[in-house]
Structure formats: C-alpha cells, structure tokens
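I am still getting used to backbone structure tokens and would like to learn alongside you. Would you supply a protein for us yourself, any chain you care to pick? Start from the sequence, derive the backbone structure tokens from it, and show both lines together. Go ahead whenever you are ready, and we will take it from there.
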Amino acid sequence: MYSEWASLSAQITANSCGAQCFSVLNKFPASAGREVVISVVKQLGTNLGITQNAEPSHLVKDEEVRWCMDVICFGLSLPLQEHETIKDCVNVYCEWLTALHPQPRISVPKPICEDANLYARQIINHFHNLFVPRQGESSDTIKRQAVLCHRVLRTLQQTAQISQHMDRETWDTLLLFLLAINEILLAPPTVKDDVGDQLCERVLSVLFEVWLLACVRCFPSPSLWKTLQESCAMWRHRIALVDQWNRVNLALTARLLEFSYGPDFTQLKNAGDEDGQLIPAGMTNDCVAQTWYRFLRMIGNPTALCSPHIISKSSHFVQWALTHEKGAETHQHPCLQMLPQIFLNAIRGISSQVDAFLGLSKTALISLTRSSANAAPTTPTSGPPSASSINSLPSIGTDLRPPLSVARPKCNSILHLFGEWLFEAAHIGGDTWLQNRKKQACEASKRPSSMIMENRKGSISLSQPNSLNDPTSLPPTLTIDKYESGRAEAIGTLCKIFCAKKTGEEILPVYLARFYMALQQCLKITESKECDETLASILLHSADLFRLDLDGINVLLPGFIAALEIVLPDKDLKLKTQAIAFNRTELRRSAINILLSIMVLPLHYHTLPIRNLTSDTGEKVLTFLQLKSRLMNILMNALQVETDAQNTHMLLGGLLLCVQDAVTFEDTELGGTDHLSGPGVQHHEENLLSSAGSDRSASLASGTVSFGAQTTAMSSRDTGSAHDYPSLTISDDISVEFTHEFESVASYDNAHALFVRATYLVCHRLISSWKTDLNVSLAALELLSGLARLHIRETDSLVKIFEPSQNITIISTDALECKRAVKWICDYICYQCSRPPPAHSKDLHSTIVAAFQCTAAWLMQHPYLLQDKDCLQTVLEVVELGISGTKSQSKNGDLPKFKDEKELKPASMRVRDAAENLLTIILEQVGYFPSECGPESISSLLDELALMKHCNSLPTGDGSVGVCNAEQAISKFKYFVTENSTILALLEEPLGNDQDPQPTVTLLIRGPFGRHAWTMQLRHLPRSKSGVKYHAVNPGRPIPMNDITQRPECEQKNFPEGVDKVQPCVADYSIPTIDQIREQYGANVISELEAMLENQSIHEKLAWAESDNSIDSLSHAQECVPPTVCHEFHAARLFLSHFGFLSFEIRDPHNPIESLGPPQRPLIVLDTKSTAFAMDLDKLDKLSARTHDTVYCFYVKAGQTSAQQIIGNMAEDQSYDSHFANMLQTLGWPVQVAEHSGWTGFAHNSWSLKGTSIPADRYQSNVSSESNYNGAQHVLYWADVSSEIAFVVPNAWNLRYNSEMDACSLSSNCSDQSTMSNVWTRGDDAGSLKSKPRNLSLELDTNTRNKEPVPPTRRKGNVSKPTLLVQAPAKIFLVWLESFEDYLNFPVEDLLAYARTGEELQSMQLPRAADCHVIFLHSLQSGLLRVKLLGPPGRMSFATPLVDGMVLSRRVVGNLVRQTALNISRRRRLDNDNYQPPHVRRRLKVQDIVQKYKMDLSEAELLAHLFQRSI
C-alpha cells in the first residue's frame, strides 16, 4: 500500500543511536558533567512550583535556554543512580512543554513561549535519552526509570490532546519520537522485567492513541504510515502489540459501523470505558475509514507469526545469537515461545471484527488487557477456542447464539477484508501447508548459503536456507501443532462468515473452494480418534452450514459425519489435550444441530454420488444412501449417552423425523419394493441394526431384543444400570470409506428396523434415566405417541400372537414391540405414582398425565393389543392405579381388593381425570374410531330435534312435522340425571322406521365424554327367533272335534304310596291339625269358618246357574276375538326399572353413618319447562369432549414485513409457491364449514349438527375457491380420538369478520358486565361450606390426603361460559418464508387481529404476541425445508418432533407440523394450573344444570312422575 513512498526508518535509527540527543557535556568527564547538571537542574527545579511557589524564569534569551537544554539533555542520560537529578530534568522539561498549552505555566522561559514548536521538538528529541535501557541496573532502579518514562509519556499525550498550536513538523517529530522509543524498547528480544518489558504496553498504547489523535489534527504522511508498518513488523514478538492492535481496531470498527450501517445496526460494545473514548471526538467519517483500514493492515499477515524464522530476522536477534555462549539460532530465543499465544490473540482480534460486522455484539469480545499481569499464559492451548464466552444454559428451546444483524454486509465483502489471512491461518499445520513448506525448502536448497542483507537498516540475518525450513530445528514449544488454537479460531471464524449467508446471496466460487479445502483439511480424523481444538471449533460454529443452500456443500458430508462419530457417540469425549477449554454440552448441541440438518439427505438424494474434493480417483465414490446407516448409528448412540436435557430433546425430535421419513419414503417412493437392500448377503457381525435381522424372530419369541452382538432381556429395563444397556456402539472394523458390499447393510436400516430400535431405546431410557426430568419425559412420550401412529409397510418377518382364551391369532410385524412399548409406559406410570410424597409435584403429575395420553395413542392405533390378556390386564391395572391410587393386586399372588374395600386416594385429580379418560377410550373408542359419524365427531349427530323429525306419531293436519324448534322437541322427552354427571333424555315414542309394536325407548345420553343416542326395545325373543307375526282381524273358528274321548276313571292320590312309612320331621308338624286349632282358638271360631264355607258354596252354585242361562254362556255360539295390539307402553319406566335406576337406597337405622345426611338417590328428575333449559342443553352440546386447537397459516414473500402485505398474498390474483399449497393439503383434510360438525376454528359455528349451523350469509367470503381455507366456507381439519385441530389460512375476510363478531359480542354481553367482572373469583357465599375452596387445577389438597378426595366441585359464579376455565388463548402460527431472514421482522402483533376464534372475549384474555408460538418453514433450493421455532421462553414451550434448525423432507412436513402443534398445545395445558380437561368441564356443566333444574321429588312422587305422559 505504501510501496511508492520512502520510509523514515533511517531517521528512527539515527534517533535510536542518539545523534540528535548528544550534549556538549559528553566531551567532559562524566563527573564534571554530573556536577554541572546537578547545579543547574536543581536551580531550575526550584522555580517550577513543586516545593515552593512558582516564579517566572530568569532565562530570557535563546542562548540561555539552549545552554540549559544542553545540560538537561546530558542529565537525562545519567546513570539511574542519579534518580533525583534525572527526575528534576524530567520535571523541568514537562513544565516547559506546557508552552504548547493554551495557558503555559509561569515558570516557562519567555523564548520557549514565543517559539513553542521549535523548542518542543528539541525537548521531545532530548527525552529519547531517558528511554535508553541502562545495562546492569537493578530491578529497583529500572522501576524508577519506568516511573519517569510514564510521566513523560503522560505529559506528551496530554500535550497532544489539549494543544492548539502544534504544527505538522512538531506532530511528525512527536510521532517519530514515539516510534523511536518503541523501537529501542521493543525491537530487542524480550527480557523479563527489563524496562522494555515494563513499558511495553504503555509505550504502545501512547503511540497508538497519539497516532489516532494525529489523524484528526494532522493526518500522518504515507511515509509515516509506512514507517509505522515496518516498525510494527519488528515488534511482533511482543504480545502487547497484538493486544493494542486489537483494541484500536475494535474501537475504529465500532465507529465505522455507526456511520456505515446506521443506528439500527447492532452496536459493538468494547470491554472498558476507556476503549469507548479511544477515538477522538472530532474524527470525521472519512478519516475513520482511512485510519481503520491502515491500522488493520499495520502488522501485516498474522500467519507470519507461525514462522519464528521470519519474526527473528532483525539485527537484535542476530546480535543475541552471535553473543550467545552456546551458539544458538535466532529463532531459538526464549521470548519466541509466546508466538503461538500472539498468533491466537491476533486471530481472535480478526474474529472479533468479523463478529462486529455480522452484528454479533457482545461485551468483551476478546480480552483487551492493559497490564502484562493479565496476559494469557504461555500455554497456547489454554485459551478458549472461540471469542464468544459460554454462559450458563438458559431454558430449553432457546438458542445460545445471538441472531445475526439483518443489515450485515455480504459474505464476499467480509472475505475480501479478512479472507486471505483466515484461509492461510486455517491451513497452518495441514497437509497443504506442509506440502508448500517442503516445496519452499526444495527451492531454497538450490540456493547457496549466504548472508542475507535486509533492506531495512542494513541489518544482517544469518539465515541458512536448510535450517530455515527444517521443522526439527525448532524448539518443542514452537512446533506447528502449538499453533492449533489460532488455527481453530481461524477456521471457526470462516465457518461463522459462511453461516451468515443470506437467502439468495451469492458467494464467489473461489471462496467456496478455498473454504471447502480448508474444512476438509481440518476435518481429517487422526488414528487415535480424538477431538482436537480445530474439530471442536468447526462444530461449534457450523450449526447452520448445511441449511443455507451453499453450492457444493455436500462434498463435506463424509468429513462432518466422521467428526460427529467422534463427538456424539461417546459419553466421555476423547480430547487431544486437556488444556482445551470449552463447554462440552454446547459442543454436543452444535453437533446435534449439524446432525439434524443432514438426517434427511440420504433418502432425499438417494443414490446420488458424493464427489471427492481431492484428485485421488482410486477411492470408490460414495453415495448418499450409504451414509444413512452411519447417521442412524450416530443418532442412536448419541441418544444413548446424552445427559443434557435440551440436547436429548433435540435428539428425540430428530429420531422421530428419521423414522417418519423412512416410513413415508418406503410407502411413497419404493412402491412396495425394497430398493434399500443391495446385492449380496451381509453377515450378522457387520450388521449395524441387527434388531431387524434374520435372527429377530428368534429373539422376539424369547421376549428379547438383539442389538449388535449382545442380546438384552426385557427384564434388564427394571435395573436401569448402565451395563444393562444394549450395545449400540459402532463397530471398529467399519471404516470411513464404505465398500460396495456395504450397500446391503441398508436392508437392516429400513423403517421397520428403525421403529423397533427407536421404540426399544426410548422406552428403555425413559424408565431408567429420563423419568425425573419433565421436558425429556414429555419429549420421549411425544416421540412414542408419534411412533404409535406410524403404519409401517409389511415386511417378511411376521409375528403371530395366539390368544387361547379367545381362540384367535393376531398376525403383525410389530405386535410384540407395541406390546412391550405399552408395558414400559405402564411401568413408567407405576414408578411415577409410587414415588415418595415429597417428590409429588405439578411436574411429576404432568408426566403421568402425558403417559396416560401416550398409552391411549398406542391402544387407538393398535387395537389388537387389548385382545392380549396380559396387555389388557396391565393397562387396566394402571387405569385403576390412576383412578384410585392403588392396585387391587399389588402382586400376582395377592387376593384382589374390591372397590368398596379400597380407600380412594389418587395421586392428584389431574391424574384421576387422565385415567378416567383412558378408561373411557378403552371401553368406547378402541377399535371403533372413527365411527359412522366420521372423525369430526365422537358424539352422536342426533339431538332431540333430529329425533322428533323421525318420529311418525306426531303429524299435523297438513302433513308437516309437529315439532319445529328445540323447546318443543325437548318437551317430548323425560330428563333424568344419574351419578350427578350423566343426563338421560328418554323418548317413549317409537321412531318412524319401527314397524314392530314393542316397548321402545329412544335414549340420548349426555355425559362427560359426549352425547350418544340409543334405541332400546323390550323383546321376549331375539330378532332371529321371533319371525314375522301375523295379526288378522278375524282368524276364523276352528272346526270342532266331536270325538268323545273315553277317560278312564282313576282314584286320585294326593300322596304317593308308602307315605305313611316315612318318618315325620319337624316340618311336618309346622302345619297344625284342625284339632290343634280348635284347642288353640276354641270351637266357636271353627264353627264360624264352617258356616262361611257353606254360604260361599251356595253363592257359587247360584252364579253358575245364572251364567248358564245368559246369552254369554258357553252354550251359545260366540266367536273368540283376540284383543287389540297394545301400542302404548310406559317404556321409560320399564327401562329405568330394568337397568336398576329405581332401586332406592335402603338405610340401616342402627348404623349412624348411613342414617346421617339425605338419601343418595340414583335418579334426579329435571324440570324441562324452563325456557333456559334448551339453551343450557345447547351449551352443553357445544362443549366438545375433545381438546380443540387452531393453527393459522401465512405465506411471506421475500422482504414483506407488514401484515397487510402478508395477508394480501392469499388473494385470488396473487401467486405463491406451489409447494406451500401442497403442504397445506398434508396438514389435514378440507371440510365445508356448513356441513362440518367438529371444530371449525370459530367458536360460534363449531360442533353444530349438519344442516343446523348458523346461517352466515353476511360473513361469507367473496373468494369461493376450494383452496381458500380462511374459515368462511372451507377449512382444513384433522382429528383423532382426543383432539381436533383446524388449520386456517386467513385473508382480508377474517379481519372484517372478527370486527363484526367483536361488536356483536360486546353488545350482547354489556348487560352481563357485573357478572363477568367476577368470573375469576371464587365466591365466598358457598352456603355452609366454610373450608378453603379448592383451586381450579383440581389438585388434591395435601392436608386431606388421608381422606377420600373430594370430587370436582361445581365452580361458583358464571359457569354458563365454560371457556372461562380453559387456558389463555395462545396462538400457533405456521409461516412459510421465501426469505429466511424475514422471520426477524414477522409482524406477530399485527396478525393477531386476523387470528381470532371468538373465545377471546369470553375468556376476557386477549392473546399477546409474546405468548404466540411460530413455526417458520423456509424452502431450500434442494427441495428440503428448514425449520425455525419461536415462542415464549417458558419451561415447556417447545415440543417435539420439530426442533429449531431441523431440515425436513416435504414428504413428512405436514405430519410433523401437525404433531408439533398438537404437542405444543398439550404442553401448555399441562403447564396451566387453571386448565380443566374437556370431560371435566362437561361434568361441571352437567352439575350446573342439575343445580338449576332439579326437581326435589320423594320416592312416591318420582314413581308417579314416571307414569305421566310427556306433552
């Protein structure tokens, strides 16, 4: 940069030799000069005002001043023993320099004041004598010299700062003086505790600070800049030079960023306040830019620090080598042992500047020290490999890496500045570097040994070419491996630069090529398979490398996989040296991030070859598919040994991604044929996933699972010890370079093998290691739920389960694995429930609830499991444990304990509710979901109105139906409540399709788990045997038979023969004889009885005679007519009686416990005459028995930041990526809102019967396209047995609709403000109940654990609004980004207005942007999708399977997004104290209806009510 300019090195050399600092007193003996100095300086010092008041100087002529200055010049060169004299000389000169100040001191001579610049230049030159090192001085005198030098430096710096009169010549003199004293102090080799060592940092800081000041006042000439650059090259063996260089560079960079990128750019914070004031206030922007670039290039290429021969070329090192008593080489000076640390500090400084340009503003980016005491130790590997400090880990799901600035420069610009240095530094010690050194040595050997003359100062370097490049001549502390810390910092910085690539940004191919070559060199694994500092630095800073669309990045895939195989699978990381200081958890997290970004590549690129960067064609070309087994092993082994919660969370998400992707790939891509297996047969020893091998059936038959060469029994999971874990390590005989035969290993890597291995591993770790951690347990249970939903393609290995009790055989590929998984989950629940009371907490109960939900998922997807007796017994025992708190049989041999003998003590009400839900699913839904109604409803689609429309007994005169509204339909039903939780609606009218006159009752059951409709008939024969009955009006008379049969007369015997021989028993005497009665009651009574009998016989004979003479007698011809068929039955009474609802409680009056309190009636009658009854029933029907969630989908084009722009993308005239539309179709199935009976995303029209939804003409969207899923006409919907979710794509219609709905809600609720204002308070007017009210979380009170838990009590207050009891409405957004950087400016707050369900006003909690969960998807050029998750920083915010930074395949994106949204919602419900499950809210609503409409009837009144007909 300064090649055309002359250097001022000769002038500096002259100053160093003392040519301008020579006094006339040097011509006299030293003692004479000393006496003169003492006399003169002592007198001058008395006038300075130090010991007495200052007086005007007596020196009034120039000659007098020059003579005195000549004396002082000699005095400054006196030996240090004359410390007081030297001190007086310094004081005089420092006072005289105030002539340059705005207000000079009174003691300054008049000639100096008149020509201050001339005399100041002379004074500055004379000061040189003070800084000349004295030989042989003691450390005490050297410290005194250092104090005086500090005084001079402080005076010169202060003068430069406040002087307004300094001309250019004076500035040049001052700068040359500072260069000269730095040269004389710093150029020689470092000697500990000499004056140069003590003043090193101070003289450098003054030089740089004054130089910066000169750039403002009088910009230095190019010659001075060139001289500064040459001088600094001679001081590079001083660590303070690099530290001060970094300090100035960072300060200048901070100012440069301010005006280059504006105030919005992330500001760089320096380590101290002084560094912030380092740049003079008056420096212009152009001056800052010029100065910054010149300082940046001041010390040259930092890689020269790795060559001690270059650093030791100066004449001072040659002089040391010549005078060394043992004849050492120049590069063997002990001070050069600091070169590795100096190199590291230099690269750190560059790295800090790169961070500043990227917007990574961190306080104290590097250690900027001012004292040598704070200097880093000499061990080059003792410092951290990264400039960024590792802080304590925050909550799970947060990213430790700060976000890059949006306004950051392009990667090419940063590489133009620093790329050359960083690329060279990254190759230090690598194969390429060694080859270049050998090449240089070969070229140098062709030249004869010579004395190489330097162009600077004529210094001589005794450089022998052979020794110059011979690494064996270097001391052990300077071998090339000692520079690894700096190399690691350089490659880490390069990784940060390339990871800062923006969407669509182009990086020059030459930079990509050099970067890939450097990474390939640094990723080479040694035979010892240890993690060195370079490898750790690459992994720490390359988390985003494979998700940025870098051209050709996949050529590095084998190298990165080999690096991951070193870091992730082993529990104890093998470090090359223990001096490496970094956070191992953070290293593993970054490695896991890389793993998650490359997991889908093998199945995405399949058989595409991976090119090798080198030109070696002898190696076989790898394909992507050959790497799949290695990736699976890394993932499994990492999950086996991982101990950090967040890392485990990420690995679990990646595991489900792998299994899901493999299953979907085999279903869609392979088309039923297994292309994963290659030719040839693979031996079992080479199998990486032997659980799916040929010996699998044998191991499964014995109840074991085989991994590798070991077989671990199922019983080992109970021990939980580490040595019982299956062998999951990678075989050592498998090399990095795969052979062609290794393709057959993929046959063991299919979806089924992954499913088996993942299920076993996760279940094993869950019950052994993860059960005490909330987030890991939830993530594991979420993964198991996801595995349960997978439908794996049939394989050749079928498992048969024979159930002898039911005489059936179940054939399944995964039956035993599924059974084992359910057994493990049940064991997990048992363990959690059995933990001691101090361990029972909200988090523990949350894991139990999640485990019950996971069990339900397995049973729903694999209903054949309930046909296995052992599995059924295990599940029902766990259900019993959850509901009651204990099992009926603690052990197999114990006698079962019945329900009425057990004390009801569940772990908590939440656990009890979850167990009840699982029991209901087992009894009602397993094997029957979805029902005929479809998955959008688990309840019947019939209500009272629909049933009455099918009733044919109520036609009107004009043929229309007589029931036209709900109130009229309800009046035809009888309503009863049983168990205070189930409403029975009974209709005694037969339906129109009933042709058989039987006692019929139609029953609507409204319970906690939905609404169900049943029709029952009382039949004396089954339908198959009853046949068709013939009912004729006149069946005719049968033909009489006149044959008179001869009846033999026989004597009737009342008793068998021989009865008299039987000995009478006591029972024979129980009936008294007539004589005994006569004796007991008297003869009169017998006489009366006989008279009554005689009278009765007379009356009967008269009656028979009269009947024979009447026309109705049998003698007249009268036909038999059958009675008319009965069409009217009291079917409700029959039903209630037959089902035991009318068995009233019989109390023992002698039992005080039973005699207390009102009788518990099995049936409560409801009064249906109230007009509000129909409304409450409708509100109950509007309470879904499943959870419901809504996800709002948005499409963001590149650069869009406003809500209006984003919403406008969904207009008809707008185009967007077709893959976005395809992704929407995989989220759920489209439904028509008008015909939909499930959740629609809007509260007002959800859960409505088909054809009865609210007309919404005024809310209809103008866009009628089938792909318009804004909720007006169509919406995307998905549901399972326990949850339903709607996917809404908002457009402009949603804002208008939400505004109108808000206005309607406010106007309708204005009269209820007094009630709504108190909805969250628990009323104190609870009647006679004076105890502490239960909280809304339904947790059991700890002080009542020894009593039977109180059932969920009805909530006081306005319970008519059930949504008040649910959580605050948190929103989930799914955002498709064209440009990934737009996630930083996504307007969540503005888009909340488009994301309303209608529940917000009811709950009086409007959603906040801080509570929203956002799932960003960015489409890469490769066709894959990058995931970014944002959400509140809670403990349970982020759910699996999606993980921040994961790269997905389009095959699985819809499934994984849906699972993640559902799991996020489930976690929020688990974490919410006020949340109540749907069936609990329905039960509370039923209890509220009972309290409002119950009829207090006695037993007689209840029975009488049954005989009353409905209206």
Remarks:
- The two ends are 106 Å apart (CA to CA).
- The longest strand covers residues 1187-1196.
- The CA atoms of residues 72 and 651 lie 76 Å apart.
